[in-house]
Amino acid sequence: MEPLKLLPAFQDYIWGGTRLRDEYGKPCDLERIAESWELSCHPAGESVIMNSVYKGQTLKSYLEQDWAARVGEGAARLSAFPVMVKLIDARQDLSVQVHPDDRYARVHEKGENGKTECWYVMDCDEGAALALGFNRELTKDEFRRAIKQGTVLDCMQLVPVKKGDVFFIEAGTLHAIGAGILIAEIQQSSNLTYRVYDYDRVGADGKPRELHIEKAVDVTKTWPAPPRRNIPLTDYQGYSVALLADCPYFTVTELHITEGAAFPASGGRSYTHLLCTDGEAALVYDNGVALPVVKGDSLFLPANFGAYSLRGKHCTFLCTQTLPR
Question: What are phi and psi for residue 304, nearest 5 degrees?
Fold first, then answer.
């Protein structure tokens, strides 16, 4: 059994840049690469397997052939793969937006999932900032009025960011990624967004992009959101681990490899997704077979995969799983 290298699906939204191609080697001919969906079974953009006997298959097709054994106990209870991992290159400010929770989405959006997400700042320009939640508690009427008057950003917390910052964004939290930020986003598998302000920009059709004011007012938590998370590191021989997020949909850890790290088989508990965010390494498995891994690579290990190790110097991975609860 081989680790599966994934080809992402690409999105060319108007605010995107070129860093994912220029710095991370993403094979895409689009003028802009706003997002690369590194781990995705969502119909709006599915990851494709690039190696092994499954080369050319979508990840979704591969998982459906042996669902429980490949996704693991944590996700097997669900009817669809629960997680999406994206890289987001914000060359311009993203819209001010909010995502509903599962309950609201399944009633109002034909069974779509809600969206809780985690942001990991991979890099940013000097002075870059994002907007997260409110700077004071508002009533729903005050929020609606701020949207209509175009002053909603004045009511939000503006948070300067630096490389390595982590934010956990629960469904219902108003937010906007600022220009000059490169983010890895781990989220529920959903493409559902309610946009409330978009700087009066127009889309490719020359028309203003759609706003979703009443639905946004319905779902938004109109009080201050938690600030960035303080993430403690645990050091081991040859590597360190930081727990970035842990919720029913996903558990995310950052692995910083200074020499090497060995990991046991998951015992069927969960798949593992490894995204290399910096450096170079080798994933060693099956008694010595080595797969080279470089910055930007996205690997999927099914839940029935065996023990493996990561060997390298000063390389970083984001590890995503859906663990049993």
Answer: -95, 15
